[in-house]
Amino acid sequence: MKAASLPLESLLVAKHPLQRLSSPSRGVSAAVHFAALTSFTLSFKYILDHPDLANEAYGWHFQYLTIIGLTMATLTSLVGLAADLFLSRRLFAVKNMFLVCSAPMEVLISILYWGLRIIDTKLVMPDWVEMSTEADIGFHAIPAMVLTIDLLYLSPPWSIGALPSMGLASAIAFGYWFWVETCYQYNGWYPYPIFEKLSTGWRVVLFLFSAVLMAVNTVLLKYLYGRMNGFVHPESAARPGAVKRA
């Protein structure tokens, strides 16, 4: 059957051979993105309902990498839901572009937050911050889980390599460092207590380590996708659709 004779909707929702579920789609894909946005909205509502020192500070809660990541996750899922509702391949491509950044970032945030919290809660949470268990999970676990699901089940394979991912991660890590130091000049305190405990040199080490870890997350997520769904054949650029199942 010629492509021109196919229904328009069939052409719009055609998916990559390695993509597990149809997306953009008004079915499972839309439900996942809607549920994600509901959770993210409740997290932002929690900030407004429980104001603290950061609400009046320079940079607001965007001093926190957690909130920057949550914003990126919200934008990713919002574009994803729009792609689902309008069956737009263009918006779907934009969602996947955002996902390359937001998914590894959220996994990084979860690893750093829960890892440091196991050592000492006071490393990542100031004394003046009070947070319920539900809110804690909403901020520091659900975004990483939802975006990983989006990646593994609702997206085509990533094409980003190790070196570009390291460049992206470094730009984010040191861009955040500059932003944190700028906020410190106005507020006189750091958003995460661990920054107070480290000298400038050790803060550089921490941000460099974070950049490396985010790049590793990108590579591992890409590998996990391949193990679950299959790998793109090396000659796929010359022969579209040339893929190899794991």
From TrEMBL:
Among Pfam families, the record links this protein to: Far-17a_AIG1
Q: Where are the bilayer-spanning segments?
A: 60-86, 98-117, 161-180, 200-221
Ordered alphabetically, the record's keywords are: Membrane, Transmembrane, Transmembrane helix
Q: Where in the cell is it found?
A: Endomembrane system
Q: Which GO terms describe its cellular component?
A: endomembrane system; membrane
Annotated membrane topology is:
Multi-pass membrane protein
The question of whether Membrane is a record keyword is answered with yes
tRNA-binding keyword on record = no
PANTHER family from the xrefs? Answer: ANDROGEN-INDUCED PROTEIN 1-RELATED, AT02829P-RELATED
User: What name does this protein carry?
Assistant: FAR-17a/AIG1-like protein
Supply the source organism for this entry.
Helicocarpus griseus UAMH5409
Organism classification, top ranks? Answer: Eukaryota, Fungi, Dikarya, Ascomycota, Pezizomycotina
